[in-house]
Amino acid sequence: MQSPGGAVGAKYSLGMNPNQHPYLVLVMLIALAVGFAVGPLALAWAWARFFSPQKPGQDKNAIYECGLESKGDAWIQFRSEYYLYAIIFLVFDVETIFLLPFAVSFTSLPVGAFVAILIFMLLLVEGLVWAWRKGFLVWK
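-> structure tokens emitted (140 positions)
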């Protein structure tokens, strides 16, 4: 194909045919993503290294929490109910994410989609009944 300037293949500004290097765009996007993640980290490191004053001392290197010395062990045992509440919340939160598109397009869906959402709802109700019977929903 001849372009108005007379050069063959002049429509490619880099002089490369994209069909010759099909993964070039992917490699460039990955390099851009890595650079986008590593760039600010490198800039923060360089700023701290070259512009921050280095004045180590006993008070500056002391361990503190909110201005006070730490007392006791930082490892405390949490009750497992917190974990169970979080998991149950996530299950029913994700349920709403799946139910909203179904509710929006309910009238245009086939019967198979309705059966699938009924099975989905049955499994979620079964999980709710199980959690209720086990007493996970009762705050102690």
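The radius of gyration is 30 Å.
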